């Protein structure tokens, strides 16, 4: 079959590879000038440092098959994300752990003491948290919430944490020991030479052709037997029902003649600091050695048409609109909507790959509900 895949990010590359291996002819197009979507990495022209161009990407998963899959295409180096946070005049360890609690409150608590101490601070009157703020107050109490979550979240999402779902906070652990690894997952790492060579390897198959700087046209779909769409879901329907909301990011680059902040990611909890975090890219490749340094200050704002979409907002208004688009997508035979943009969900890389592998298998087995009859 002739398969058209729109988007050369994780979904397009992984599905394309699987279908190519099964003998299908896969044409992958991308409107950008490079493969890899937002996972794209490249060396900084001035310093040679590997840049996570669209923000930090740390691979973490419990899915052994997905871990083996990515390792089959590139060498991963061990990497654990140890984030720091500047807030209220201090620097603390994230996610909130025993060191954070002891330093923030000027204590020397042991794990059980800290657990009891935080239980006193936590708002036990909230039994069923209805939003992000209630979830945070119930978990850690007002002081930690205001230092680490409130300002950061207002900046990140551009609204009050009372308007956001509690589920966003559930991404972050709270620990009563000194474990400061940001993620729980068994397998964690970053490709030795960045993510782009991994995409090169996935896409390196005789049945795959990749066209960059190429915008989708309906004529392309007409030439194909099936389409996998990993572009924005509303974009496929020419935004006829309206725009689904996204947050976009602006990165302000600056260089430094040494080690700027001593870690890869420094979050800023205070509302009066306009950026959410600073990433210092050489610390994502600690196996390399660089004298100089390149950093990004990261600013979040509402995406306007033409901006790169990053985080789906999924508030009440978006959810209503999303349901309408999903109904349209389900009724569109011959097109399967995949990935973060195609399904308007905030997906980690490992989940995106898992879903892409499953989507490809379902298609090959004739179980894709969007397959044309
Ligand atoms: N968050 C926060 N303070 C922090 C880090 C995260 O309040 O220092 C909140 C914020 O609302 C964010 C959410 O927790 O959107 C999830 O954080 P995560 O680090 O998973 O966000 P990502 O790195 O994916 O942007």
Features:
isomerase; UDP-galactopyranose mutase; UDP-GalPyranose_mutase_C; single chain; 5-stranded parallel sheet; binds uridine-5'-diphosphate; 17 strands; 12 helices; 373 residues; Rossmann fold; 7-stranded mixed sheet; alpha/beta
Task: Please give the count of helices.
Answer: 12
Query: Beta-strand level of the residues, as a percent range?
Result: 15-25%
Instruction: Kindly identify the CATH topology of the domain at 2-42 and 51-77 and 190-239 and 316-364.
Output: Rossmann fold
Give the assembly state of these chains: single chain
Using the coordinates above, name the CATH class of the domain at 2-42 and 51-77 and 190-239 and 316-364.
Alpha Beta
- Rg for CA atoms: 22 Å
Principal-axes geometry comes out as globular
As a percent range, the share of helical residues equals 25-40%
Sequence stretches where pLDDT stays below 50 over 5 or more residues: none
By secondary-structure content and strand pairing, the structural class works out as: alpha/beta
Could you give me the name of the CATH homologous superfamily of the domain at 2-42 and 51-77 and 190-239 and 316-364? NAD(P)-binding Rossmann-like Domain
**Strand arrangement in the largest pleated sheet:** 8-7-13-14-15-12-16
The CATH architecture of the domain at 2-42 and 51-77 and 190-239 and 316-364: 3-Layer(aba) Sandwich
Instruction: Give the helices and strands as they follow along the chain.
Output: EHEEEEHEEEHHHHEHEHEHEEEEEHEHH
Cofactor: FAD
Pfam families: GLF, NAD_binding_8
GO cellular component, one term: cytosol
Domain UDP-galactopyranose mutase C-terminal: 147-346
């Amino acid at each position: 079959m002739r398969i058209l895949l729109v988007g050369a990010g994780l979904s397009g590359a992984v599905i394309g590879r699987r279908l190519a291996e099964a003998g299908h002819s896969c044409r992958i197009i991308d409107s950008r000038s490079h493969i890899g979507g937002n996972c794209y990495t490249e060396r900084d022209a001035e310093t040679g440092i590997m840049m996570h161009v669209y923000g930090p990407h740390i691979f973490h998963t419990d899915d052994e098959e997905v871990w083996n899959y990515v390792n089959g295409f590139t060498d991963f180096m061990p990497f654990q994300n140890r984030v720091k946070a500047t807030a209220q005049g201090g620097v603390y360890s994230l996610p909130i752990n025993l060191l954070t609690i002891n330093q923030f409150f000027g204590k020397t608590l042991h794990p059980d003491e800290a657990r009891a101490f935080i239980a006193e601070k936590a708002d036990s009157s909230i039994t069923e948290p209805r939003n992000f703020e209630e979830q945070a107050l119930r978990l850690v109490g007002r002081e930690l919430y205001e230092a680490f979550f409130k300002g950061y979240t207002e900046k990140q999402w551009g609204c009050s944490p009372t308007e956001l779902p509690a589920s966003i906070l559930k991404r972050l652990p709270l620990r009563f020991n000194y474990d400061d690894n940001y993620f729980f997952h068994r397998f964690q790492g970053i490709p030795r030479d960045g993510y782009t060579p991994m995409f090169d390897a996935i896409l390196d198959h005789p049945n795959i052709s990749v066209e960059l700087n190429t915008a989708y046209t309906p004529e392309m779909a007409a030439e194909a037997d099936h389409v996998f769409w990993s572009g924005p879901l509303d974009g496929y329907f020419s935004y006829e029902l309206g725009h689904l909301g996204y947050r976009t990011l602006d990165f302000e680059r600056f260089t430094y003649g040494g080690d700027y902040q001593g870690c890869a990611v420094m979050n800023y909890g205070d509302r009066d600091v306009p950026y959410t975090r600073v990433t210092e890219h050489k610390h994502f490749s600690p196996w390399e050695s660089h004298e100089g340094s390149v950093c990004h200050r990261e600013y979040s704002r509402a995406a306007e048409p033409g901006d790169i979409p990053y985080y789906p907002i999924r508030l009440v208004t978006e959810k209503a609109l999303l349901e309408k688009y999903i109904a349209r997508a389900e009724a569109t035979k011959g097109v399967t909507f995949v990935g973060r943009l195609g399904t308007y969900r905030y997906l980690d890389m490992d989940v995106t790959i898992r879903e892409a592998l499953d989507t490809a298998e379902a298609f090959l087995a004739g179980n894709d509900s969007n397959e044309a009859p």
